[in-house]
C-alpha cells in the first residue's frame, strides 16, 4: 500500500531532507526507523528537498510498504524508532498513483526573524537575528507585489539545475510579513520553488525593511532575471516548511 | 547608583538564579559579566529564587555600581560579556532604597505543556510533554477557584523554610489555563510564592484536566494544608517567570 506521512522535524543537525553522501539526512533517519519497524527499507518520496538546517512544521512524504499496523497507530509505532527531532504527526493510505512531490499543488514556508537590539536567549536555532528595526509595513507592500506568476530567476541561487533547464516560472498565491513584538514572520505560498528561493525572497524583503531598496523595486528585480539584483540568501535556521497542500479529495 | 536590570534567560544549564555551591547559577554568570564590564563584582539582589532549569522571559534584579555607561547602552555592553542564554533587555537607575525582591508586588509565571499524542520535535527544553488530552475547561474552572488569599501549605514542597516559619498565606490575583492547539499554558499571578508552588499548582490542575479530581476539589486540597493532597510537582523545564510588577511610579 501507498502510505502518506506528515512529519515535523528540527532540521538543525541534518543536511536536509534528501539523502546526501556527506551528512545525515532526514530521509535516511526516517528510512532507518521504517526499516526497524517494517523489516524492509522502503524508498521514500519527499514533497521537496529542504536545505541543511531548514525545519518543517509539516512535511509530507510517501512510500510503499506492506504493514498490518493500523494507520492511526502508525505514528506512535514509528516515532519510537525515530530520533526525537523527527516526529510523525499522522499516517494515511493514499491512492496508488500518489506522489508526495508531484501531487502537491502548493507549499507554504515561514521565515522567522528575531528583530531586536537584544537577542532572545530562546530558540536560537529557529530564527535569524536582525538587530536593526525593520519597516514591516514596507516589507508587506513589497510582499504583495510578489504575488502572481513570474520568472523568479533573480531569486534562484546559481547552480540551480531547474534554472539551467529554463523552468523558472512559479506562481506565488500568498506572501505576507507580520510582526508580533520582535518576532517577524515572512510567509510565502507558491506552487513550487526554485533553489533557495524563499531565503533570497526573505533577504530581499529585509532590504526593503531596512529601507535599502523601495517596495516597488522588487518588480525591477524580477524583470532583471539576475540573481545579483536580489538581496542576500538568509541563513537556513529561520526557515520552516509550514504546510503542503494536496487536492481535497485525497 | 542603584541599577535595575530586566533579564531573559534559558535556565536549562543553570542550577537556578541563586548562587549555589554545586552548579552554575544565573546570578554567578551575571556577576562574572558585570565584573568584566565594571571591574568590580557587585552584590546582586534578584526578584526571586528560581529552581534549576526554570526559564525567565522577564527577571528583575538590582545591584549597586558606579558606571559612566549610559543606561540605554548598558544592555548592549553587558550582553557582550554574558553567555548567549542570558540576555539583558533593559537597564534603569532606580531609587536608593529599591530592592528587586521586596519592591515586587506581583509576579506572573507561565507553565507550558505540550499536550499531544505526538511530541513536538521543537522546544523540548521549554515545555512539559503530556500525551493524554487535557480538559482545559475543567482546568480553567479549578484555576478560578484558586484566585484569592489562601494558606497554600498544600502547594508547598516539604523542606520549605517559609512553611517552617508559618508564612504560608499568599494572594493569587489571576490564574487561567489556555490552549492554542496542543500548546497549553497555565498562567498564575500572585504577590508571592512558596517553594515549588507553581509547579505543584500546575500538577494539580493537570489532575483536574485528566478527570482524576474535580475542579472544586482544589478547595478541599487548600483546606487540608497537606502537601500529600495536591498533585505532583511538574518538571522545571515547562516553567517561565513571565513578568514582575513594581509600583508604577518607579
UniProtKB/TrEMBL annotation, chains A, B:
Keyword Cell cycle set for record: no
SUPFAM superfamilies xrefs: Pseudouridine synthase
Domain of life: Bacteria
Active site: 51
Assigned EC number: 5.4.99.12
Catalysed reactions listed for this entry: uridine(38/39/40) in tRNA = pseudouridine(38/39/40) in tRNA
The entry's keywords: Isomerase, tRNA processing
Database matches in Pfam families: PseudoU_synth_1
Assembly information from the UniProt record: Homodimer.
Entry protein name: tRNA pseudouridine synthase A
Species per Swiss-Prot/TrEMBL record: Candidatus Allofournierella pullistercoris
Amino acid at each position: 500500500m501507498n502510505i502518506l506521512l506528515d512529519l515535523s522535524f528540527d532540521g538543525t543537525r541534518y543536511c536536509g531532507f534528501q539523502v546526501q553522501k556527506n551528512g545525515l539526512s532526514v530521509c535516511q533517519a526516517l528510512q532507518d526507523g521504517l526499516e526497524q519497524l517494517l523489516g524492509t527499507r522502503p524508498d521514500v518520496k519527499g514533497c521537496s528537498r529542504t536545505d541543511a538546517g531548514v525545519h518543517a512544521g509539516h512535511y509530507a512524504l510517501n512510500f510503499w510498504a506492506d504493514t498490518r499496523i493500523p494507520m492511526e497507530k502508525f505514528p506512535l509505532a514509528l516515532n519510537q524508532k525515530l530520533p526525537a527531532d523527527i516526529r510523525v504527526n499522522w499516517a494515511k493510505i493514499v491512492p496508488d498513483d500518489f506522489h508526495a512531490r508531484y501531487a502537491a499543488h502548493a507549499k507554504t514556508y515561514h521565515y522567522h526573524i528575531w528583530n531586536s537590539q537584544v537577542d532572545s536567549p530562546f530558540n536560537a536555532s529557529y530564527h535569524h537575528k536582525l538587530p536593526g528595526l525593520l519597516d514591516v509595513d514596507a516589507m508587506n507592500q513589497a510582499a504583495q507585489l510578489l504575488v502572481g506568476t513570474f520568472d523568479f530567476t533573480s531569486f534562484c541561487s546559481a547552480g540551480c539545475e531547474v534554472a539551467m533547464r529554463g523552468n523558472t516560472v512559479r506562481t506565488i498565491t500568498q506572501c505576507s510579513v507580520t510582526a508580533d513584538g520582535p518576532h517577524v514572520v515572512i510567509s510565502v505560498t507558491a506552487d513550487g520553488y526554485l533553489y533557495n528561493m524563499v531565503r533570497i525572497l526573505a533577504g530581499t524583503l529585509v532590504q526593503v525593511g531596512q529601507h535599502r531598496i523601495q517596495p516597488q523595486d522588487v518588480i525591477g528585480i524580477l524583470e532583471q532575471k539576475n540573481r545579483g539584483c536580489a538581496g542576500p540568501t538568509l541563513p537556513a535556521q529561520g526557515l520552516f516548511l509550514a504546510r503542503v497542500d494536496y487536492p481535497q479529495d485525497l
